[in-house]
Design brief:
This protein is of the alpha/beta class. The protein has 2 domains: 12-187, 3-Layer(aba) Sandwich (Rossmann fold); 198-319, N-(1-d-carboxylethyl)-l-norvaline Dehydrogenase, domain 2, CATH 1.10.1040.10. It has 13 helices and 8 strands. The protein has an 8-stranded mixed β-sheet with strand order 3-2-1-4-5-6-7-8, with helices on both faces. Helix 5 (101-114) links the parallel strand 4 and strand 5. Helix 2 packs antiparallel against helix 3. The model has no long low-confidence stretch (mean pLDDT 95).
Amino acid sequence: MTGAPGALPQKVAVIGAGAIGGGWAALCASAGWPVAIYDTNARAVEDALEEIPRRARALIALDRATPGIVERGLLELRQAKSLLQAVREADWIIEAIHEDLGAKQRLLESIEQVADPQAIVTSSSSGLSPGDLFGRLLQGSRCLVAHPLNPPEILPLVELVPSEETDPATVERATAYLRALGRMPIVLHKAVPGYVVGRIAAAVWRECIDLVLTGVIDVSDLDRAVSLGPGLGWAAAGPHLTYHLGAGAGGVNIFLQHLLTSFEAWWGDLASWDRLEPTQRRALIAAIEKAYEGKVEMLRGARDRRLGAMLRALEQARTT
């Protein structure tokens, strides 16, 4: 057990063998860290044990991992037969089951009963309150949310959301682990529903859905509009810096002087609904499936290659 500041985990336990849990396991294995994965669904674990090596090795082609280290980590990948076996001697326990508050609370309570007291516990929740997640625990000080983006092994951002009970030392340890994995953690000062990434994504996607369903644009062109428009600019600088740079020497003050009126008019005309009706949901599914029918696996590979290229470019820019 290595709870000392700066020490790397001697073992990681991933509880939940779905897409997110598999991504965490692939990421940790790609760094050469021993990983135990556990799920009550035996079929999910079987599928994960096939997917994790593929996902970890795919990082090599994307220049995100080193072959020898990946293979060493995969040799240390274990399927745990029980929760106790999974968390035994683990320094970092990653809860990654489906987004159900009650199920997560019950699992976290079970983890607390069998985990080493020095281990830190992170939940991969995408928007639940850390106070609700960890409020029943006796050792909530060693718990916090570590919300990855999907796929976790490629996208570097991770939201850290402590509860009021989380010890600052726990945040420091989680931050150190994530940085050792090449992640870029951000720490929220307070919890809000959906955290930061989820709220931004929900706001933008609602407008994207509305533009498609009201016939303004097709799905494929909408996705290009975002990925090659604000998405591309924001990938390089984020929204605030993008607008600050966009006005030249005058900065955001000049930008707002010239364009705030336009933005305010657009804000007043943006979609404001908060529920997709069944007919709208069916229409959206049909539009997306029609746009990408028969191309999903090809597009998944293309997306991953683009992400790898963009990450390399961003890293090179930071070092020049």
